[in-house]
Automatic annotation (TrEMBL):
Gene3D superfamilies: 3.40.50.2300
Tagged with keyword NAD: no
Xref: InterPro entries: Bact_response_regulator (IPR050595), CheY-like_superfamily (IPR011006), Sig_transdc_resp-reg_receiver (IPR001789)
Keyword check for Phosphoprotein: yes
Sites bearing 4-aspartylphosphate, chain numbering: 53
Stretches assigned to the Response regulatory domain: 4-120
Keywords annotated in UniProt: Phosphoprotein
Name this polypeptide is given: Two-component system response regulator
């Protein structure tokens, strides 16, 4: 069964790189341009993993993860934060919100796939 991954990032080029990388590894991807859009894409269908940026307009990644975790259908969906932020306090906020991994941009596609494979068991 194909695993579905939601990519939430306000950068179209980042979404494209992540999507291409994941599709190349056999995953199905859904894209959202910010946290609000990401929440709209959560329609109750099964999502195996979410990859989210931190700094986005309308709703940032940390707020998005908090909202996501409040939804019983997605409470246990693993989240990877993909961001230029590498400060420990941001990572702590992400972890507190429920993020399982933190990948810093620019990322290597293989590094991303390794993180995804660990979480999409």
């Amino acid at each position: 069964m194909t695993k579905r991954i939601l990519i939430v990032d306000d950068s179209a080029s980042i979404r494209q790189v992540v999507s291409t990388t994941l599709q190349g590894a056999g995953y199905e991807t859904i894209e959202a341009c910010d946290g609000m859009d990401g929440l709209k894409k959560l329609d109750g269908s099964k999502i195996n993993l979410i990859i989210s940026d931190v700094n986005m307009p309308k709703m940032d990644g940390i707020s998005f993860v908090k909202e996501l975790k409040a939804n019983p259908a997605y409470k246990f969906t693993p989240v990877i934060m993909l961001t230029t932020e590498s400060q420990e306090d941001k990572k702590a906020q992400g972890k507190a919100a429920g993020a399982k991994a933190w990948v810093v941009k620019p990322f290597q596609p293989q590094q991303m796939l390794t993180a995804v494979e660990k979480l999409v068991m």
